[in-house]
Amino acid sequence: MAVIRWEPARELQSLQNEVNRLFSTVFDSPTAPNGAGAQARRWIPPMDLVETDSHFVLHADLPGVSEDDVKIEVEANVLEISGERRSEHTEKRDGYYRVERASGAFSRSLTLPEGIDAGAIEARFDRGVLEVRIPKPAERRPRRVEINVAGSPPVIDGGGSDAPAAEPESASAPAATATA
After folding, report:
1. Coil, strand, or helix at residue 59?
2. pTM given for the model
3. DSSP string, 64-123
4. What is the mean pLDDT of the chain?
5. How far is CA 137 from the centre of its chain?
6. CA-to-CA distance for 37 and 130, rounded, in angstroms?
């Protein structure tokens, strides 16, 4: 039997997400403009986020939306994709409208990690699929500063390893070179 650590914060977050989803389906559904009491469906495009070795890659399905109707902005480490899908097909019969596909304005936000270069983000739109490539920030390695003993120079190691720094070579010793 596997032992799974209980994380109360995660449970509360899950509960909050479910309650928010429930209330958003009830209160965020506007009624149809003709006052017929039918509810217009709110459209939220689905997104996938994949992590590769060098990038975060976001794919968003935006069928029926042109690239001119999509806006991508980055502000304070938040990537926001917004736009609008316009309703194209309505069929009028006996005083009511039949709308089968959801349309309207949408906005999706994604919090990015610290250190992302917003100028290096690339976006591509192909056949209704938006691909946004977000380069990962450079790894931040810990910097170790050695405490010097009176009379010896301080050693600063930016490699993050715990191994002591190499002793400086004397001027008479031959220099070793390495090729990669």
Report:
1. strand
2. 0.54
3. T--GGGEEEEEETTEEEEEEEE-----EEETTEEE--S--EEEEEEEEPPTT--GGG-EE
4. 76
5. 13
6. 34
Q: Rounded to whole angstroms, how far apart are CA atoms 160 and 176?
A: 23
Give bridge partners of residue 111 from the DSSP assignment. Answer: 78
Q: Name the 3-class secondary structure at 161.
A: coil
What CATH number is associated with residue 154?
Answer: 2.60.40.790
Q: Give the total number of structural domains in the chain.
A: 1
Q: What is the pLDDT of residues 82-98, one digit of tens each?
A: 998 887 666 666 666 66
Bridge partners (DSSP) of residue 105 are 84
- Give long-range contacts, CB 8 A cutoff, 24+ apart: 121-124: 121/72, 121/74, 121/79, 123/72
Tell me if 73 is assigned to some domain.
yes
Query: Residue 135: which of 116, 161, 113 has the closest Cα?
Result: 116
Which helix (H) or strand (E) is 22 found in, with range? helix 8-27
Q: Cα(76)–Cα(86) distance, rounded to whole angstroms?
A: 30
- Residue whose token pair is 């977050």: 13
End-to-end CA separation in angstroms for the chain: 48
